[in-house]
């Protein structure tokens, strides 16, 4: 494919014309569109389960990503364009004053089409839609650990380890993902019984608790002036209106890095760094998916929205399920903290 400029292909029974295959998408590494297409075809068995049935917001670099000194033009795209193939899975999502029709990456053909039109970054919410396109409650929880000036991956690892300890005490087993940018995303699975607002509140209070106990390392406020030398625990991506880059997606940075699921053993390595697409292709060749504990989970049947209390929630823990009460999730942790430092999470 790399030696051709155009090729007609059939993917899962759908015909696609791949154009400008030799076009340089990442100038600093000489990575071409053909190589981007090859990457997405290789990781499709791992990316698709992480993205399936989730409305996709895309970041496109039609003329390539440019360089660190001169970044290429990028634009966000939510609505599925009129020229998109009719076979692409889609979901019409009603917002406050309008409706957007989003594509969903449920198959390799759709992923190939996205790579063809330079949709390098694939962002999804923490919730899926049902067969009728109705948004379901969140089935996963994420913390975005973002280092401020003077901080880096080592500080993110330190915060990730602290957060992991708390989450494990609550019956959850988080999965780390080096974001392909500067930081780390920390995911856990949920069973879909909580509303986005409840999950966001949980994440916010967890971030505040980390900040209270480690004020020299953690900040939970988005203000840039507060972030020097610290790690922002960004809890906001649990909002029903927010999205996070899906694991295994490329990033539109000067280097072709990837949001890559990792092991905790890897995070402990002093040589930990972001991974590029060639490294991720090599990793998945073993068939091992480190994000499987999150993406392989299936939501239980959903009824009507008739239970609005913050009662019970089942959370994933290494393939097992444990029912816990939201109000008690931080109880053990709170008991070890000075309540004068910060309001107790989920006060009764």
Descriptive keywords:
348 residues, alpha+beta, four-stranded antiparallel sheet, 8 helices
Distance between the termini: 61 Å
Total number of helical segments? Answer: 8
Low-confidence stretches: 298-328, 342-348
Q: What strand line-up does the widest sheet have?
A: 13-14-10-12-11-17
Helix fraction by DSSP (H/I, runs of at least 4): 10-25%
Which structural class matches the secondary elements? alpha+beta
Whole-angstrom Rg: 20 Å
Average pLDDT confidence is: 87
Question: Beta-strand percentage?
Answer: 15-25%
Give the strand tally: 20
The rough form would be described as globular
Biggest sheet descriptor: 6 strands, mixed
The ordered string of helix (H) and strand (E) elements is EEEEHEEEEHEEHEEHEEEEEHEHHEEH
Provide structural commentary.
By secondary structure, the chain is α+β, with helices and mostly antiparallel strands. It is 24% helix and 24% strand. It has helices at 33-51, 108-116, 153-169, 196-213, 264-267, 277-284, 292-295, 331-335; strands spanning 6-11, 14-19, 24-26, 31-32, 57-60, 75-77, 90-94, 99-103, 119-124, 140-147, 175-178, 184-189, 218-219, 231-234, 244-245, 257-258, 260-261, 275-276, 312-317, 320-325. The strands form 7 sheets. It has a 6-stranded mixed beta sheet. The radius of gyration is 20 Å and the shape is globular.
